[in-house]
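Slide 14.
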Amino acid sequence: TPAYEHRAAALRTWQPPLGFFLSVDSSDQYYNLTGFVVDRTGTIVDMAATGFMPQLDRELPELPTYVLPSTPLVFSRDAAAFCDLLHSAMRGNTTPGIKVVPPKFLEKLRSPTIYDPLSFHFSESLIEIGRLSKWNVVASVQDEMVGYPSSSRPNVSEALYDIFSRNTTSYALKENWLIVFPSEICEQPQIDRAALQRLVEKSEKATPGAAEIARYATTSPAPNMCPVSVPYLIGLANVSGFGHPTWPYLRFFGSLPVWFQNIALEGGSFAVHELPLSSRKELEVLTYFTARPDIQSSLPSSTLTNPSLLFPNGIPDSTRIRFEATHSHCVLPAPQLTDALPGVVTSMRTFALFTDADPKIFDEFAPPQLTNFWIGDETMARFFVDLSPACVLRGFVVDYKVQKSGRTYTPLSAPESFRTALQKAVEERRAKRGGGG
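Slide 15: predicted structure.
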């Protein structure tokens, strides 16, 4: 609307002095944007109260009367498979190993530099809407404009909502021309296709380690900001859960030279003044500009709303970064069907959710994709940045190593070391629940 354009223009010309934090909560027909700015005096400014962030009512394009909203879209087999993977991830089903994937689509999925991620269900949705409505369609699409589909087989109404209810998407409809373009709020960088290609290639024989994933994180936005990368990260790289606030930790870890990464995974430490400039920059972003930095402090919580009050001159050179590394097993569900993808790597803590001390309970109630799996090694590297004696910034990076070949196991045939680790994870989980069964 003109009023929103006026406020958006005001936002573009106004530069926040320290940090700008924005949260978006979706509802049925609108997005409610709220945000606040922290300036160098520690003042919190409510953006909604200033009028810069109004509630937005996203109007959808009006369909011609001859188009039924319930008409299903006709996808190619590749676009349908991509949409299915993305919808499964949205529903929390991150183990697509029980679903058959078309072999030709799998080859295309392994080549994002050739077959662009936007060329699947999103592009075909726009083309189908234009075909059914007899509109000419012109679209300039960015990765951030693609969200999770509301259905694995969307109809016209669902596709319209999926595409045009997002505040990152704008459109103009005039004289049978539908023009789609990014909105002013669409500001995430594009996914680096070459970096995604390298990550996929690393994933063919084994799960990518923390270094490979972190290297990708330094080039591309988090998957929760650009879900179009999810089928690659879950379906091929077998990783999930890397959204906010994990992504800033990965970006910091990926900016470290290889020898510092090795020190981190071995549980060592080093000083801030030893870091290269790029790593210091990521550490400062993590400290000053992350919306919810995990800071443990004996100071009043209100002080933590602005870390610059604690460290007005930046992070001291003498600050040390300590790592504590713990080692355990991890699990990668093996495909249960021919031409199916594996699931995602599961830590022993998560695996304990599906089992108990009695293997019979596991066999009876466990999801089928977890009854046949590869066993690998997990390194949990927790880091602590000693900003001051009273203030410590905390984070973590997980390194999984699983070979996607060789023998697979069941809970009954797993090695003794694995069964012992599983029993320990179950006992720890019981203790946290107060001893409940």
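Speaker note: The first strand starts at residue 19 and ends at 26.
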